Amino acid sequence: MQPLALLAFLWVLLPFAFCQDDTCAIHGRDGVSGVPGRDGLPGTKGEKGVSALQDMLNSITMQELKGEMGIRGFPGEPGPKGFMGAQGPKGFLGPKGPRGSSGGIDGSGGPASKKPAFSVLRNRADYASYSQPVIFDSQLSNVDNDFNLKTGYFTCKVPGVYYFVFHASSEGHLCLRLKSNRNSVSLNFCDLNPRSLSAVVSGGAILQLFTNDKVWIEPFTKSAAGSKMPKSMSAVFNGFLIYHKP
């Protein structure tokens, strides 16, 4: 090596000759930072963690330190109504009930065999008299014979509420009354016909009757022309019990 080259080499190494304990002489200078190195290799597997038994022991310790139960608080407010649940199964058939009392005409305990009703007709050629019951000559029905064809009276045998209705026709003036001896019931129905043509009168009423009360229809006049009707009269008279009432 040439002397000059050797001298330059020694001049470069001279600062490192005075470094001790990783510390260089004060007259040295820092080197240039190097390039970052690669990531290191994965580390070794860590030690096993603490057993869950420790958590259980901690829970037992907390329970032992738990105080006594306090006084029960007041009930809370009712919550909102829930949805309707599904329908449950059908229950078993219950025991047979006791036998009921004997029913009446309408189940009220009256005489079950008594159901008064009638429908009577008049086609007679003779004249009907004013203020006298109309006499009928035939019947469509007459349960228990409560209506008397000969007298024209219906006689109540079963007390209760009844319905009566009549239809009549004649020539000239025609006036009929539905009457009863119960509280002097008298309902007037008239058809005044001055031309002597055929006249028709209808009427009806609901009456409460008691035993032996009578109901009938009778012609009447608004003048003193005579004691009998001027012409013959055809009529139908019906009545029946609505319900028994003692």
Automatic annotation (TrEMBL):
Biased composition annotated in UniProt, kind: Gly residues: 100-110
Where can this protein be found?
A: Secreted, Extracellular space, Extracellular matrix
Domain C1q, which positions?
Answer: 111-246
Q: PROSITE patterns from the entry? A: C1Q
Where does this chain mainly localize? secreted
Q: Where is the signal peptide?
A: 1-19
Which gene carries the instructions for this protein? LOC107551613
Please give the name of this protein: Complement C1q subcomponent subunit A-like
State the GO CC annotations: collagen trimer
Q: Which GO terms describe its biological process?
A: complement activation, classical pathway; innate immune response
Stored SUPFAM superfamilies: TNF-like
Q: Which residues form a coiled coil?
A: none
Region annotation (Disordered) maps to 92-113
